[in-house]
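Example 3.2
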Amino acid sequence: MARIKAQMPDRFLIQRGDDFFELSWKWLKKDSWLLFVFTAMWTGTWIVKFNSLPQYVAFIGVGVAVGAIYMSTAVILNTSRVRVTLEFVAVKHGPMPSIGNKVIPTSEIEQLYCLEKTEKTDDGKETFSYSVEIIRPDQPEITLLRSLELDEAIFVEQEVEAFLNIEDHPVEHEY
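Structure, written as tokens:
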């Protein structure tokens, strides 16, 4: 059964050429303010309590604060880009370094599909995120992108498959 063509998500930009296309989007979302509030509160708490705590505890707290500041700054500044040519699919996150950058030769791509990840919060609610996975012949599957909304993951899957002339086939654990 053919899937309905996904619409381009609002925060996505697309650039097309004769021999490539590139999707890009900013990491900053409407709910990113929660991360900023947490970072400010955590950092402020550790600055105030730094001298009154055992040294090893203080350094752990400061380490977490530095990591939270880095992540908050990355959310503000970073953009993800997926560039697709007939030779490769490249994922680049920047300008701040981040995990997930990769280049995959198109000869290694057999199929793409979306995978749902479900997590339970402390109050029992479920949250969902989606990834785009790549099936490679005679090699382990790899994740192209993660932490996407459903419409974003489906759009990326469909656009890459269409450009590379990959016929969409159902995958057992596909969302």
